[in-house]
Amino acid sequence: MSSVDIVVPCFRYGRFLRECVQSVLTQSGPELRVLIIDDASPDNTAEVAQELVRSDPRVDCRRHASNQGLIATANEGIAWVSADYTLLMSADDYLLPGALSRSADLMDDHPSVAFTFGDAVVPDQRGERSRRRTGVGSRTHVLSGLDFIALNGARNVCANRSGSRQPEEKIGRVFSRLTLRLRYGNVVTARRTRRRWGHCRGPSRVSIAKMSSESSREQDLLQRKAAIEHFLNGTATRLTNADEFRAWLNHMLALEAIGCASSAFNEGAMESSTRLSKLAVSTDPSVQRTRRWWFLACKRVLGLRGWLLARPAVERFRSIFRTSTVKRLGYYPLLVQAV
Known about the structure:
two-stranded antiparallel ribbon, 10 strands, alpha/beta, eight-stranded mixed β-sheet
């Protein structure tokens, strides 16, 4: 029988923690262990964690004397795991019945699969749900490492927490090593929440309190750029087209930066928009020849007030264009673009 270690970092999520852990403990199939890591939460996280430890021998907990942040806390949990599979799960997530068994069964049947992920259902502020899709359809698929990268580009399509296979070395280096060697599986299980992930592994709520303060758009893009370089530097010798691959990933990242610059413009954050535009150009100068770049340039000519007046009509046109593109190219036009 397979085993799964579940790591639950928690900071100010005490009100969600019990539901999160109990949704794990009621799973059928794999042998389970749960480690709660309380990152010096000022709420009732410690009390809830201790109650869960007392109620089930499969649960353990640690409490930090001072806040370490999400990355350090997650790495601490990853260093603890020893099971066949690992799930890093936020305390505001919870699993629906059968989620772990479906993922574990898939990886049992496909030894080359490194991890599983699924679609997400995310509600807006009014509680209306929209499905965020991964781009591989509703059935189970096994993707090669390069196909998975092509699907992601410079972003991450895994909206929900992913179940990972435990490699020989701990998972800290899993991305650069596994992307080329192994295959990635998509399993659509079932997940829900108040930011709800539906038909995936479990949900994740939107909350004001976070493990650490959110990074700025610029910091996020710089971190993605560093991750891309780390990956390529570690795998370049195994890629026949490493330079082309680097150019494509940098172009995707530059497009992301322009998209962020456009969003910053919409919010009136003009200095941030300018910095993000410069980051895009420094990442890939050819981004200045794209439609996304010229669209932002037109918005700047209009000015913020003019753009806000024109925006409803532009959005209607773009919606019509996207609908016609989907009908023409198929459900996921992003799959047309490959490495």
